[in-house]
């Protein structure tokens, strides 16, 4: 048995029902044939090419 915040005691079955009411059911599992292959891409670039304005970029963005 478990106790809720008001002090009431619940059985395991009642707690299971309350979890189901609160969270619902899990979605169905994804079958292997429904999965897709991921393609790796280049890592994200945080800064643009510095070019001739590297000092101005740093000043403008507080680096």
Describe the structure in your own words.
With 63 residues, the protein is mainly alpha-helical. The protein has a domain at 1-26. The protein contains 2 helices and 2 strands. A two-stranded antiparallel sheet has the order 1-2. Strand 1 (2-3) and strand 2 (9-10) form a beta hairpin. The model has no long low-confidence stretch (mean pLDDT 77).
Which percent range describes the beta-strand content?
A: 5-15%
Query: How much helicity do the residues have?
Result: 25-40%
What count of helical segments does DSSP give?
A: 2
pLDDT average, as an integer?
77
How would you spell out the order of helices and strands?
EEHH
Radius of gyration: 27 Å
Structural class based on helices, strands and sheet pairing: mainly alpha
Shape: elongated
């Amino acid at each position: 048995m478990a106790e809720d915040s008001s002090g009431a005691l619940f059985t395991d079955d009642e707690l299971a029902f309350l979890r189901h009411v609160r969270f619902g059911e899990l979605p169905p599992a994804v079958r292997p044939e429904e999965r897709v292959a991921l393609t790796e891409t280049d890592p994200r670039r945080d800064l643009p090419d510095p070019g001739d304005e590297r000092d101005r970029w740093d000043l403008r963005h507080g680096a």
